[in-house]
Structure formats: C-alpha cells, structure tokens
Design goal:
Layout lengths: L8 H11 L6 E2 L6 E5 L10 H4 L1 H9 L12 H14 L3 E3 L12 E6 L12 H6 L23 H9 L2 H8 L33 E7 L2 E7 L6 E4 L5 H7 L5 E4 L10 H11 L6 E6 L2 E6 L5 E4 L17 E6 H12 L10 E5 L15 E7 H9 L22
Parallel strand pairs: 7-8
Antiparallel strand pairs: 1-2, 2-4, 3-4, 5-6, 5-14, 7-9, 9-10, 10-12, 11-13, 13-14
Helix pairs in contact: 3-4
Length: about 400
C-alpha cells in the first residue's frame, strides 16, 4: 500500500468484521448497522492475550503504534487506543443497553452512523473494493492486519489525499490517548475555502469566556490544535502516564472568591465545583466544534446544533456531541450572502450544574457558565461585515466593572 493511503477507523473496522478472523467480532443485526466487539478484561483468569487482545493489537499495528519485536506488548494500551478511537469518532455510537460485560465472553455493542441514508456500511462499493478476506494469519502476529492486504482504488486514494490528516488525529485519538503525528503549534491561520462542499479548516482556536452569575472571571483564546479542557483543578498526571500525553489546553475554574458574590452563592458554587473535576473537553475539527463531558456534574448547553432552544439540552457523560456543524455553517453563510437567509449562528453556551436553556431564569443568574466562540466563524462573518464586535454584543450581561460582554 502506498504511504498515506490508510483507511478511516470505520472502513478498517468493517473490514475486520467481514473478515471473520476475530472470534466474537460480528454483526449484531441483519442490516449490519450494529456490531459486537469482544471486551474481556485482562484481569480475568481465562484471559488469553493472543485471542482476546488480537483486534486491539491489530489496530495498534495498523496505526504504527506497535511493531512485533521492537515494542513491548501492552494489551491494556492497545485496548485503550481502540476504545478512545471508537468514542471519539462520530461514525460510532455505543449502545449500552445491548452490552454484555458480566458474561463469560463479554462484549460491547456499537451502532454505525450512516451518512445521509447511504447504503449499509458493509455493502458500500468502496468497502467491497478494499476488502480482501484473510484466510490465515501468521503465527508470529496472530490477528494483526498487515498494510499489504488492503488495496486502494483510485477514487478512494483521491478522497484520502483531499482530507486533512490533522483532523483524523483529532477525531480518532484524543482524550488521554497518545496523539499521532506532530501538529503545528500556533500556526498562522490559512484562508478557509468557503462555498466549497469540503471547506479547508486550519484555524482551530476558540475564545472561551467563563462567567459566575453573569460576571466574567476569565477569557482565554485557546492556542492548542487539540482544543481545551474546562475543569476544576487539573487533569490527573496519572492519566497522562497511563494513556499518553494530551496537549489540550487546560482552563481551570477560578475561585468563587475572585468575584463579589453573596456568601450563600459562593458556598453553592464551591459545592458545584467539587463535581466538575475532569470537566469537559472542547475542540474544533474539520467537521465542526465538538465536546465530550467527563465530569460527574451535569452540563447543559445551547448552540447552533442544539435540539431545543426553549428547554434544556443535556450533555451525556463520556459521549461526543457536535456543537456546530461546519458544512451547515458554510451553507448558511452562503445563503446569507446571497440574501436568502439570516446570519448563521456560531456561538455556544455551556451551563454547569443547572438546566439550560431555562426560560424561567435569566442566564445572568446561573452560577457557572461558559461562552465558546470558534474564531474561524467569527472572523469569517467580520470579513463580510456580518458579525458584531464584542462591544456591540450583549451576551451574558456585564462583568464586575460594568463592561458589556
């Protein structure tokens, strides 16, 4: 296979399911929209690394993270990498109610997200063209998928060459996973190709504003292409040691004592902050703005892709949510410039510990909120004189000095 012609996780995993070489990896339904993946814990007495870690090892080999004879075998790390990739990918959604983790041969079930009602994943012509069913695996590397067995047709190569490898890294291997590839730090934003079906994103910065009862306590423009955590304290060092470094910027909630609040409000805020350790992870990728909640405390949000505008939208824990869809934003911007629609929305609001949106309570009364502005969108609108400056925009009330937010 030519260098750089790797499959996405979705295509790679469907190939493995269809191959039938991994025991327990199979379709859950006849329509091939859900699949089972073996999930035996390494601490079990009947755990056999050769069989039970074969799929996870194959993914590590395929991604270049493990080479037989060079690297020390680490089944726990292999499993972690594939789990992170599945959880971060927008192509998959875990189906917890179908999981069977307490049986002799435990497994998880994932649903494959179809693209705009397209053909079933395993029946896709592109997948069939790339699928070469393996008959026997080498005894030296059981269950691994070697690069040579996956042939690429011309159309697939062309599609891959157009895609941004940085985006794949961000989407596939993020939170507490070793991020593959070196990403440019503090890069100068390149022009965005709007009006194109696949805009080229290169500005991953966000302006994040934290507010306590409507008072601004922090405003930061992120600089890491890996996004940022908003959390109480810091990401535990033990996680980085186990799962590898994550270079996402860390924004810690300031002490409630940093603003003038009644003592009862400060106490309530301190109680809430105790439940926000690990916080949320936000990042911008080629397809949009994403978030994943890791904290115990509840988090609600509003934004361009929110299901409700008049009642709360809750972020489920350990699930990836798309807060803004870039292709939709670009389409709406084009319509706006042609006089066929309003200015597209791009601002996102997070509310920690309290339901939001909440028509009965003004946002300035909420204990802890965050406003997130993807700078590529703000700058695009300003380029066409469609945006508002911060001085003109009233977002969440005024801060302690009375300046408009």
């Amino acid at each position: 296979m030519e260098e750089g012609a790797k499959l996405h996780l979705k295509e790679w995993l469907i190939t493995q399911i269809e191959s039938g070489i991994y025991e327990g990896l199979c379709w859950e339904d006849d329509n091939k929209t859900m699949f089972r993946i073996p999930w035996k814990h390494a601490a079990k007495k009947d755990y056999k690394q050769t069989e039970d870690a074969a799929l996870f090892k194959a993914w590590a080999v395929y991604k270049g993270k493990y080479k037989e004879g060079r690297d020390k075998a680490d089944p726990t790390m292999w499993k972690t990498r594939l789990r992170c990739a599945l959880n971060k990918s927008t192509d998959f959604q875990e189906v917890p109610e179908r999981n069977q983790l307490d049986i002799t041969e435990p497994y998880k079930v994932y649903c494959i997200q179809l693209d705009n009602g397209s053909a079933k994943p395993a029946d896709s012509p592109q997948i069939k063209d790339k699928m070469i069913i393996q008959t026997k695996r080498s005894s030296k590397i059981p269950g691994s998928v070697e690069k040579e067995i996956l042939s690429q047709n011309d159309s697939f190569k062309a599609k891959k060459e157009e895609e941004n490898p940085l985006t794949e890294n961000l989407m596939m291997e993020h939170m507490y996973c070793e991020l593959t590839g070196k990403k440019p730090q503090n890069q100068v934003p390149a022009p965005i190709t709007f009006f194109s079906p696949a805009p080229t994103m290169s500005d991953f910065r966000m302006k994040v504003t934290l507010l306590y009862q409507g008072q601004r306590v922090m405003q930061v423009t992120t600089s890491s292409p890996d996004g940022c955590f908003i959390l109480q304290g810091r990401v535990p060092l033990g996680n980085e040691r186990i799962y590898g470094p994550c270079t996402a910027q860390q924004l810690s909630f300031p002490s409630p004592g940093s603003v003038s609040l009644p003592s009862c409000m400060a106490e309530a805020m301190n109680r809430l902050l105790c439940h926000l350790e690990r916080g949320v992870l936000l990042w911008v990728a080629q397809e949009g703005v994403f978030i994943k909640r890791f904290c115990q405390g509840r988090v609600y949000w509003s934004g361009p892709t929110a299901q409700h505008s008049d009642r709360p939208n809750k972020l489920e824990r350990e699930k990836t949510f798309k807060l803004l869809d870039i292709p939709t934003f670009v389409s709406e911007l084009q319509s706006c410039l042609q006089g066929r629609g309003p200015t597209p929305s791009y601002e996102i609001e997070l509310c920690f510990g309290e339901e939001y949106p909440d028509p009965g309570i003004p946002k300035t009364k909420k204990l802890i909120m965050a406003q997130v502005v993807p700078l590529f969108a703000e700058e695009l609108l300003q380029r066409f004189n469609l945006g508002e400056t911060e001085e003109k925009r009233l977002v969440l009330g005024s801060n302690t000095e009375g300046e408009k937010m």
